[in-house]
Amino acid sequence: MDAGRKREAELTALVDIALELASARDPGRVLNTIVHRARTLIGTDVAYLTLYDASRGDTYMRATDGSVSAAFQQLRLPLGAGLGGLVAKTHKPYWTTDYPSDHRFRHTSPIDNAVGEEGLVAILGTPLIVDGAFVGVLFASNRTARPFSPTEVSLLGSLAALAAVTIVQVRAAAETAAALEQLSEAHAGVEHAAAAHDRFAEIVLSGGDVDAIAAALAELLGVWVVLFDALGNELAAAGEVDRDLAGKAAAASDSGRLVRAGECWMVAATAKGERLGALVIGGVAELSAADQRIVERAAVVTALVLLFRRQAAEQSQRAQADILSDALSGNADPRALADRIRLLDSTRRLPAQLVVAVCRGDHTGVLARLSAPLQERLVLVGPYAGDLVLLLALPDPVSAARALTEVARRCGLAIGVTGPARWGEPLVEAHQQAIRLVTTMLRLGRSGQAATPDDLGVAGLVGAPEVDVKAHVAHVLGPVTDYDSQRGTDLVGTLDAYFAAGQSPTRAATALHIHPNTVQQRLDRVTALLGPGWQHPEKALDIQVALRLLRALHDPMT
């Protein structure tokens, strides 16, 4: 009767366990429930459960109840090793009253050390099997020697059968939920990508430029975006851009696939195998597969817009080249030229006078390197007689040469700047002067510079059909003459005496009847006004010529 009552209690406990397991949905909670129930059902100090790892061919500790050893809780059991490994290999239950001294099992140092640290002595293990598939092993253990009765082995086996079914069901439910979530995310990603596609298509069809693409991409993904052209110049940006990171990432790849570039993402905008630009994305650690496809689609649309832009620019350049050729040949009426220019850009206001810049050398990168303010002043540009000619709406050639200096340096070419000149014959003359100027620059080794005739000093005067003496003197000596007129000094007279004395401060002081220190102080002031290179032979010659021209201007007999 006692045995019957005990058996009835055990069956009742199994029914309760089954109900509890059936209501559990979290895999971790299911496993913890199983080991806790095993420990209380068998009445042992510790209960634990290992799961089978098919990829590694062993079992690993997954849940424990009553365990105190960290090493034991992280134990892995190779098939056939120890009691648990033997259960996993044979799919049969095994038990022992005293595991450390039981030589039926293959003892290994990792297993024995972990079991010893936990203090386990008596161990019962039974397999978890569902439809012939091995799931893991359920254990009940004691820290003192004790036998396990056949009833206890059977009871743990019944619990193991319930546990195995529950584990498989919970796993299947979790996998199904994950699959449904992935499907939901994929569906959302498809909708997101479709919305992005529609947005980009709308931009292209409405005639939008790359600025609109960058802004749309930044808004869709919550990132910052920078678009570079093939030369690395920034074409568009959106969001709070980190330009240092963007610049480093821009050259990461030439393919049309999105790649990780440091802390950014980068994709090249290519067409017909040619790299037209690069999109750099930042401000986000990871991009989902759907978002990556959106960025790649944006790169395709960007390449399309850049291709359209280049084709339009090429058509415009061809038209400009035709107009420029007529303007520089002097064969066309200025009013007809003005009308043709307005057809290219109806919003452009034509200036009455133009500055002419002739670029000689490899000028393929000139237009890409023009600053935005200079591009706004560009009236016509195109090749002519082997040079690249720019007609600029600027008030004087000096400011144009200053603005073009960096372009000349980076492109390694000589740029001669003349003007300003009116349309018609004056413009033709200014262009011819610019040709003579740039030819002289190359002969003097002035490649990589932009210069006006006055910048070449005497050499510039030789190449000019007409010389504005006052303008030339002002260009060379202007800071000195202005200083004298404002302060009543005679730095010009000191320079005359200095050069007349063979550039000797002492002899100049004698001629001026002043102390040599005074001469040196005045020369230091000239250095501050004209720059430290004014005494070099070439510059000194220009200054001496300017001094003679200044005297000629002041001589009433001239």
Distance between the termini: 146 Å
CATH topology of the largest domain: Beta-Lactamase
What structural class is derived from the secondary structure elements?
Answer: alpha+beta
CATH class of the largest domain: Alpha Beta
Number of helices: 20
Outline of the structure:
This protein has 558 residues and is α+β, with helices and mostly antiparallel strands. It is built from 20 helices and 16 strands. The strands form three sheets. It has a six-stranded antiparallel beta sheet with strand order 3-2-1-6-5-4.
General description of the model:
It contains 20 helices and 16 strands. The chain is an alpha+beta fold and about 550 residues long. It has 4 domains: about 1-175, 2-Layer Sandwich (Beta-Lactamase); about 205-310, 2-Layer Sandwich (Beta-Lactamase), CATH 3.30.450.40; about 330-460, Reverse transcriptase/Diguanylate cyclase domain (Alpha-Beta Plaits, 2-Layer Sandwich); about 470-555, Arc Repressor Mutant, subunit A (Orthogonal Bundle), CATH 1.10.10.2840. It has a 6-stranded antiparallel sheet with strand order 3-2-1-6-5-4. Strands 8-7-11-10-9 form a 5-stranded antiparallel sheet, sandwiched between helices. The chain has a 5-stranded mixed sheet with strand order 13-14-12-15-16. β9 and β10 form a beta hairpin. α2 runs antiparallel to α6 (about 150-205) and α6 runs parallel beside α9. The longest helix has about 55 residues, at about 150-205. It is elongated and about 140 Å long.
